[in-house]
Amino acid sequence: MDSTQGGLTIEVIIISMAIIFIFALVLILFFVVYQRRLLKQENIQREKELLYQKELLEASIQGQEQERLRIAKDLHDDVGTMLTTARVYFEQFSTKPDAESREKLSSKMNELLGSTIQSVREISHDLRPVILEKLGLSEAIQALADTLNESGEIQIDCARDGSFDLTKEQDINLYRIIQELITNSMKHAQAKRVNIELTVGEDILFLNYKDNGVGIDFDQIQSKKGIGLKNIESRLSLISGEIDYQNAASGFSVEISVPLV
Amino acid sequence: MAVFEVTSYLLWYNGINNHFLYHFYSILEFWLILNIYRGSLKWLSSKVVIISGLLFTLFAVVNMIFLQGLSEFNSNVTTTSGVLIILLSLISFFQLLTKETQSFLFSNPQFYINSGFLIYFSSNLVLFYLSSRIELSIEESYMIWGAHAIVNCILIISYTIALWIQPKED
Q1: Contact across the interface for A27 and B96, Cβ inside 8 Å
Q2: For residue B112, how many other CB atoms are within 10 A of its CB?
Q3: Prediction ipTM score
Q4: pTM (2 d.p.)
Q5: Among the four A48, A67, A178, B124, which has the fewest Cβ within 10 Å?
Q6: Could you give the CA distance from residue B20 to residue B26 in angstroms, rounded to a whole number?
Q7: Cα distance from A26 to chain B (closest Cα, Å)?
């Protein structure tokens, strides 16, 4: 091999080495840039999830506060007022000289205490429905529907396909979710008819809820939810449930799924 | 590794052919690198490491006996080992990117090991392949093996950084 050929070979080797070296560096740089981009996307996703969790927590706290306010109002306005009146009757009782007046007052006091007991029972029932404890979710929903159907404001039809076992936590949360949905249908959607279907799948309970109200903007559900819907999602996250808002042509429709124990 | 380097230098310094050393060095190097990746690549189980290592050793021995003798540089083995290690480093890079719990690459020792291997073995691949196939003068040899030494420095620096930084616990 002469010196010109040797020089050429050296040049080829060194240039090849330099090119491959640069190529390897570019490849490593690509890996770094690509990973940075992935991390950035992950951080954005994590921030979104944190924000969503925060919103759910806020909705849950607001819901609890509203519930406490309502109970406080019920206790103050109903039970408190009735007990105050009862005390006034008791004070009058000792001042009444004749038996007829005392008898009349005793009857009023009895009636008043009966109403007080009824009020306390209603408040207690609102906090933890007795029927839910004794007969389970399906019967509790039916009882709720019957009560509301009697009012004539709305017609609620319930159907169940198959039997299922839920934990107490699942029972109460699903019951509250249905209450929230019915409240929304009556208060915001002016619905006159509601269909509730409970279907048992493989290890999953499906709850389909439909009303014939004015409906809700599907895009709005995806972007900005109200406290009611956030409360529902917050309750579902506690019981590992999922909610699927259906883009119905009319009215409001959702499918809720909860894993069975 | 250091023993090989020092022995190789002393032999060269005393004018003795040191090519035979690289026949054994390549085998040891391949086993060590396989062992490094055994911990980080999920599919590279102990069984796969042993089988691959034994196959590579067999190839190196066959090459030593029948193809490139002890007095010749084992370019077949170094080139093959280079290609395999480049593949391992690329697979390891992809695995680092798709890991569930990600930490920044610069804080991961595996990143520096992969980078060092990728730069060293890819840059020297042409040199390893051609070194026993062309005849070079002493000056020319100094030049291309000098280029190899520069890339080797990068590999050593990569090892040093990888050992220096503390791996983040997942």
Answers
A1: no
A2: 20
A3: 0.83
A4: 0.61
A5: A48
A6: 10
A7: 10
